[in-house]
Design a protein that fits this description.
single chain, 140 residues, alpha+beta, Aminopeptidase, 7-stranded mixed β-sheet, 4 helices, 24% helix
């Protein structure tokens, strides 16, 4: 039987668990920002996603993470699909090259041009090349 995953806005008390997942992934994990979502398995936070509204209907997925021991089970896809279904928007994210195929399977496309609003919020990365992806969700 597949694992049941619950997805909803994270309670403030869950932010520390999400920051711990960030640190596990090698990110600074010092604070949460914007709208914070959690993926839970058996009540335990196993994933998190942060959204930053840049403009009306323009949203940056600022951080998406799944616990290392829970990866490969579809939790990240389920979390992202659940959040994308919450509203009509132009969604943006920046990711590592090895994550592009994952996001493309969810409907994102690599962007040839990136609005200054998005690129400016993400900022430069001196360590690696930035890859921006975009998805427009249509009204239902």
């Amino acid at each position: 039987m597949p694992e049941r995953i619950e997805i909803s806005l994270a309670a403030p008390a869950e932010h520390a668990a999400i920051l711990a997942l960030h640190r596990e992934a090698g990110w600074p994990g010092t604070h949460t920002e914007g709208e914070v979502w959690a993926a839970r398995a058996c009540g335990d936070v196993v994933g998190g996603l942060q959204l930053i509204a840049l403009a009306p209907q323009v949203i940056l997925i600022d951080a998406a993470v799944v616990r290392a021991s829970a990866r490969g089970r579809g939790i990240g896809s389920e979390l992202l699909r659940g959040v994308l279904a919450t509203r009509t928007a132009e969604w943006w994210l920046e990711c590592r090259e090895e994550r592009i195929a994952f996001y493309e399977r969810l409907g994102f496309v690599v962007a040839d041009e990136v609005p200054a609003l998005v690129a400016g919020r993400v900022g430069p990365n001196a360590v690696r090349r930035r890859h921006f992806l975009r998805l427009s969700t249509a009204p239902r």
